Amino acid sequence: MNFNLKDINLDTSLLVTILSTVLQVILILFIAGIFIAIAKKLIDRFFDSRKNSKFNKMDVAKADTLSSTAKSVSKYVIYFIAGISILEAFGVDTKGIIAAAGIGAIAIGFAAQNLVEDIITGFFILFEDQFSVGDYIAVDGVDGTVEELGLRITKIRGFDGSLNIIPNRKIEIVTNKIRGKMRALVDVGIAYEEDIDKAMEVIKRVAEEYNEENEDILEGPTVLGVSNLGSSDVVISVVAKTKPMSQWEVERELRRRIKNTFDKEGIEIPYQKRVVYNKKEE
């Protein structure tokens, strides 16, 4: 059997070239990963110092939002540089690609309009401070806490634990439920036979006691009076202003305290009753 030495040398040279290229790609990806990790640490360190600064202290939610966006930008830039380097490792002339980037950007703009819209909207959300990481918002039929505000998407964690990922271009009307005072509203029904003035006085006493104990209550609770005459009850409304995200806890505790006090005072809260008549044949 005859061996061609030239063929062996050619195969060996090709194998070395392939292995060299693969090693370069692995090395580029490894270095890119290191740079991404370093960038994240530097960004975290910078914004942590701004949050803890004695002078010109930055709001925590805004700092978290800017930090998240800066990480996204740095990651995309490093990925772009790594991609160019990998193309060069395969022998692709990237100078022509970079030179044509201006023309390519226009073409990509038309081909990826949704992506461009996402990024532009993300910048406007960020710099207009419409909402920040940690805010409780309602948008596009979804409500929850903002976990991440990126250049392309916004992640919202619902109360049921579900993670909703919304493209920024879909965010048109935002309801921010954490800016300013929140309303806690409690409706209490009493029987028509009960003394309305007495019931209102009892609710007022409960509200004043609760106000002294809970620092999350900013105003009230105030007894508004009779808000509805139902089919089986007289409804008395109580309203308070609370710190953001505390309104539901205040409502629950007010209901509990009012119910317990009504039981002590003998004030009836009507509820549906079922009476069963057992007719026996004689």
SSE blueprint:
Elements: H1 5-51, H2 60-89, H3 94-99, H4 101-111, H5 113-127, E1 136-139, E2 142-149, E3 153-157, E4 163-167, E5 174-176, E6 182-190, H6 196-213, E7 217-229, E8 234-242, H7 247-265
Antiparallel strand pairs: 1-2, 1-5, 2-3, 3-4, 6-8, 7-8
Helix pairs in contact: 1-2, 6-7
Protein name: Mechanosensitive ion channel family protein
Transmembrane segments: 12-39, 76-92, 98-116
Main location: membrane
Notable traits:
single chain, 282 residues, alpha+beta, SH3 type barrels, Alpha-Beta Plaits, 5-stranded antiparallel β-sheet, 3-stranded antiparallel β-sheet, 7 helices
Give a structural overview.
The protein has 282 residues and is α+β, with helices and mostly antiparallel strands. It is built from seven helices and eight strands; from the N terminus they run H-H-H-H-H-E-E-E-E-E-E-H-E-E-H. A hairpin with a 5-residue loop joins strand 3 and strand 4 (163-167). The N and C termini lie far apart (116 Å).
